[in-house]
Design a protein that fits this description.
With 315 residues, the chain is mainly α. It has eleven helices and five strands, in the order E-H-E-H-E-H-H-H-H-E-H-E-H-H-H-H. Helix 3 packs parallel to helix 11 and helix 6 packs across helix 7. The structure holds adenosine-5'-diphosphate and sodium ion. The site of adenosine-5'-diphosphate has 14 residues, from helix 1. Belongs to the class-I aminoacyl-tRNA synthetase family.
Length: 315
Amino acid sequence: MNRQLSLLTPSGHLTLGNLLGALRPMAARQDDAYYGLSDLHAMTSTHDPALLRARTTEMATLLLAAGLDRATLFLQSRVPAHTQLAYLLECTAYTGELNRMIQFKEKGRGNDSTRVSLYTYPVLMAADILLYRPTEVPVGADQRQHVELTRDLAIRFNNTYGAVFTVPAVVTPAAGARVMDLSDPTRKMSKSADAAGSVFLLDPPDVVRRKVARAVTDSDTGTDAVRADPDKPGVTNLLEILTACGGSADGLTTYGALKRSVTDAVVAELEPLQKRYAELAADPTYVDGVYRTGAERCREVTAPVLAAAEAAIGI
Ligand code: ADP
Ligand code: NA
């Protein structure tokens, strides 16, 4: 089976969308799986050090609480091979290639106080991937260009210095649950802390209730108003959340009833996770132990790749 590799950026709070779209499938695939928290990627724009550390710990603890305890869980900054290989790849990449990255164009180009790390982010991402030699990388549309760059860099390095890297195929991920923002169901639920339409995994029941109660629906008052329909994105989203959380829409005819069912299902889904989170968070040294074990396993896997790249490039 193909090695699993996935990095999450601790730039906000994990949401119900992350749980249904990422954490659940990750928990189902934990053999030969490397799941990282990319704290280095979280520093590519203005950041608060204490907040970064707190969010990273929160996210790691949530991943463990969600059952990700068999996979190798690691913190990117604790595996120095990532930045070491990134530099070798910076010596392989061209500025012309990075200038073409759409995400950089949208987020930072033309602003004199854009961090250099935002510009070189795709190169660090290439190192994140190539170190683990996955044969396939499933990516959503927003990261596709970066993985194409990863392939280009791997191929160029191999052709110039010798066959060091496995060139991964870019694959479209299996369509998983996609949870939309409750206040704007045309965009996906996001983990940025100020997103009013996001349900965060640590939201207490009353907060979940309030957010779901405020969810955008529509003005349909017909007896069949509660139905999935492309013209009813808010209602469709609530129905999908309800089903994904083990609830049923049978017999629901009003949006009020739908929202009560969604709230109950989401609260029931989050309750065991939050309980486990509280237990794990009670021991502040626990996550650090997980990082240490993770870093050791990552070092075993990545050291030969880094060593081969260094030897090939002449250092
Ligand atoms: P990042 O990639 O910066 O860590 P994201 O939160 O965008 O942050 O994505 C993390 C993972 O969670 C990805 O696998 C993504 O597909 C999934 N994910 C994020 N938001 C949603 C959502 N609203 N619905 C379903 N899956 C989501
Ligand atoms: Na993403």
